Amino acid sequence: MCNSQGLRSTTGAGGATHTSPYKPASRQTPLALAALGLGLLAAGCSAAPPLDVVTTGSISTDRAAAYESEPVPAGVAPDDWTAARVALAEAFRDESTAPSVPWENLSTATRGTVTPLGPTQAKAGGCREFLMSFVRSSEANWLQGEVCRTERGWWRVKEARLLERS
Fold this sequence. Notes:
alpha+beta; five-stranded antiparallel beta sheet; two-stranded antiparallel ribbon; 3 helices; 7 strands; rod-shaped
């Protein structure tokens, strides 16, 4: 019931009267709030910035094509080799002094590291050995190989083989 000032009066327990300017919620209020929430969610998806499709990184498209032409070592999944090969290039980039470069392939849940071994020979054709790990679940495999510098200064895998367990 409303009084002369438009305030709603209710009588509570013990006969106490309480006045409020608010009306009780109607049955349509929850539906209106749900519709508002869905509208905000839908608007949030349409307001997202566009995906950035520009390829970035230290690996040029020429190098990436050269890496793809290298054979995948026996016993290594092609997707894992692709991810590990990028880390291998990073490990030998600019005479890196990092002891190991990590890599991870989320699609196969495989990860590992690449560790350069021995000194780098700067001249074209100079070669250097490396050790690469492949860890998946509780299984670990090791690959030993050798990369050699090309005339363009890139490192090309000369040989790579999985090490046998003893």
